[in-house]
Amino acid sequence: MARRVGPGGSGQTDRAYHTSTRGAAATARPAISEDGGRTWSEVMRTNFPDSMSRTFAGRLSDGRFFQVGNSTRVLMDRNFLALSLSDDGAKFGKMVQLVREPTAQRFAGHLKCHGYQYPSCVVDGDRLLIGHSVNKEDIAVGIVDTTAV
Questions:
Q1: What is the pTM of this model?
Q2: Looking at residue 44, what is its pLDDT?
Q3: Ranges of the chain with pLDDT below 70
Q4: Which end of the chain, N or C, is surrounded by fewer C-beta atoms within 10 Å?
Q5: Checking DSSP bridges between strand 8-12 and strand 65-69, what pairing results, if any?
Q6: Which among 115, 128, 143 has a CA at the least distance from the CA of 56?
Q7: H or E stretch covering 19
């Protein structure tokens, strides 16, 4: 199952919803709900890198948890998109770089940032379909064979 809730990525375990907020700390700030999203824990500190960009998280068909985003401690660095994987949803021990090609904006705009951003995902059996913005001008789609990562 994959879904996005609130300002960051989210995932669902058998008993809890997880969401991550964006902030200037350059690390993910998760919160957990044990009652279907009616109430949430305090936002927690982690050491999971986040460049203050939107993420998308969920659970793969094999039970592993995933998060897609700009996982770097450099604020607003969106030069690459990464897939992070976890067996338990708490410790993400594997990260795979999905794209890292130089981008160039064609049009000026308010609050535009170069690079890869705003991922959205769909789990389709052993595939993870990932759509994302490039420079807030184009949409790109990638497919990851989850049995290979």
A1: 0.79
A2: 73
A3: 1-28
A4: N
A5: unpaired
A6: 128
A7: strand 17-21
Q: How far apart are CA 50 and CA 137, in angstroms?
A: 22
Q: By the 8 A CB rule, do 18 and 24 touch?
A: no
Query: How far does Cα 114 stand from its chain's mean position?
Result: 17
Domain hosting residue 134, numbered range: 2-148
Q: What are φ and ψ of residue 94, in 5° steps?
A: -135, 135
- Overall domain count for the chain: 1
What does the CA dihedral 84, 78, 11, 29 come to, rounded to 10 degrees? Answer: 100
The two three-digit tokens of residue 106, written as one number: 């064609």
CA dihedral 85, 22, 124, 103 (to 10 degrees): -90
**DSSP for 55-70?**
-EEEE-TTS-EEEEE-
Q: Please tell me the total number of residues recorded for the chain in this structure.
A: 149
pLDDT tens digits for range 47-56: 777 777 788 8
In the prediction, which pLDDT does 7 show? 42
Q: Which residues contact 106 (CB under 8 A, 6 or more apart)?
A: 135, 137
